[in-house]
Amino acid sequence: MTSQNRRLTMKDKQAKYPQLRFKGFTDAWVQRNLSELLQERNHQIEPNDEYELMSFVAGTGVTPKGERYDRSALVTNDSKKYKVTEFGDFIYSSNNLETGSIGFNKTGKAVISPVYSIFYSTENADSRFIGLLSSQKNFIHSMVRYRQGVVYGQWRIHESDFLKIAVFTPKLDEQNKIIEFFERFDKLIAANQRKLDLLKEQKKGYLQKMFPKNGAKVPELRFAGFADAWEQRKLGAITDSFSGGTPTAGKAEYYGGEIPFIRSGEISSDSTELFITDAGLNNSSAKMVGIGDILYALYGATSGETSISRINGAINQAILAIRPTKGDDPYMIVQWLKKQKETIISTYLQGGQGNLSGSIVKDLLITLPKNKDEQAKVGSFFKQLDQTITLHQRKLEKLQELKKGYLQKMFC
User: Fold this and answer.
1) CATH for 171-224+371-411, among 3.90.190.20, 1.10.40.30, 3.50.50.60, 1.10.287.1120?
2) Under a CB-based contact definition with an 8 Å cutoff, are residues 125 and 63 in contact?
């Protein structure tokens, strides 16, 4: 690929040349209305063996119903007829554009809900190229301009208005080159996602087998050389714990300092969005924690999440800091808390309402090996596994960011 390097003329300033493109392509991209590139498909039939009833899933596309948690209500209504869609069709939902209900059919023959707008490509374009275009923010903004209605669920972008949108496109051979590039990139991302998912599933399995099941005193799987029964103790009996606070909002002298201010969504991070000053720390209930402390989220969407602190910083009231006092391995305690998260949430936060508290956490009954060497081995095993998962997560995120960068530079 090469960067476009030319002195901009008035014609060039109309964004007809992408910043980055493949060698051998130098022609300007031509502005066309979508009506020149797509035609509406509006044929409705009853589901049959050839055209099965499927869902259109944000970020995924046309998907067999069985893969969607049996959420049949999303794809059924009183009508017995549904819209036909073929492989390569471009599809959107007027109501959910911003959350990804836009893209093309990678599955093949199907029927889907009539609420979706469906198009097939003309000889001037490949619908897969339009699908890539649709991931651009300016494309979504162009669509939203035509959205009618004030109530979610009743929003509508008429197909005739959608086809008025103007886009810049290259000739078909360059379109195909771009499509092939991003299809390879998507396969790479998907392969890395599968590796990450597999590692997470393996960890779940190890958590189930390397900790005793309810009522048991030994785990199903353990390291060689250890045979003693594990013992159950209250977490508060083997640790000290404390939560923090928040400096008064609006006091400029309390914020913008050099002390990282850790909030519940940042307990696993090596950075924070906010920083406080010494004055903010000294004039509030915020408390300092250090690298290696156990951090446990008490409030909000991350309730029940736990991690080992990766930084020195101050915590707010939504975090409980936990420090072992009897020589128990902190990574072992963290993994036990991770394993018990769903049980803790379902027991103390019925329906997701309310907050956890320090007293609740301290009263939890934790089962650990008496032998500190066994604790260290189990803790080290999960620490290394978590590090491997983190590395794969970062690799996946870098690939996703790289794709975003290419999308920005390879389109006008």
Assistant:
1) 1.10.287.1120
2) no
